[in-house]
Amino acid sequence: MAAINEVSKNARTNILAKLKAQLVGADYDKLPTEPKFTYPDITHEQRVAKFIDNLKTNHAQVLKVTAESVASVIEEQLKKRDIDQLLYGENGQYSSMLENYFNNASAEGIKLEKYDFLLTDNKVKLFDESPASFTSSKCSIAATGTIVLWPTVEEPRTLSLVPPVHFVLVDAKKMVNDFATLIKIQQWKDKLPTNALLVSGPSKTADIQQTLAYGAHGPKELIVLLLNS
Questions:
Q1: Which residues, other chains included, contact 83 with Cβ-Cβ below 8 Å and sequence gap of 6+?
Q2: What is the chain's mean pLDDT, rounded?
């Protein structure tokens, strides 16, 4: 065993010596500096337009809504897909709005299902019996068409990752230009949660014969409800 350790030590020493030899005489002052890139300063209208274009490129659907029309737009989209059930987070930011609308007789035919159960004991319910879900969002990024989800006890991460159709409400007033700006103004280095999700479209993969396919795992449709645009 001692002999093997000695051989390993010698091999490591030889490799490091060769690497150090390659650096002899290098003039670091003459190495090219990496160019700094900054996103151009754009207006709110331009930011929203870029955000929408990026999402549509990634096969997401974007619908502009008002605070009063959110629930009715969801109802319309559910009925277009012959979906009669919507999973949502109990005590979420917009739970009361959904309950007031869908528990009313005018929204007959759509059942609200609270996500107040444990995944471990209800996998069939979540994976096989929840065709659509609704979540809020933390903010969004125009440059990449990205929606930032901040999972909580009220809206667990699986709420947005499992059901085939995912409705997400995005407030354009909380939209930033780029990711670097986001982590700076929200101080992510000090306030980052244990889990943050960056969503830019429905699920996709290119593992099958290197062909890009959408909806292979996770939501097949991402419907963005854009508020204050």
A1: 131, 132, 165
A2: 86
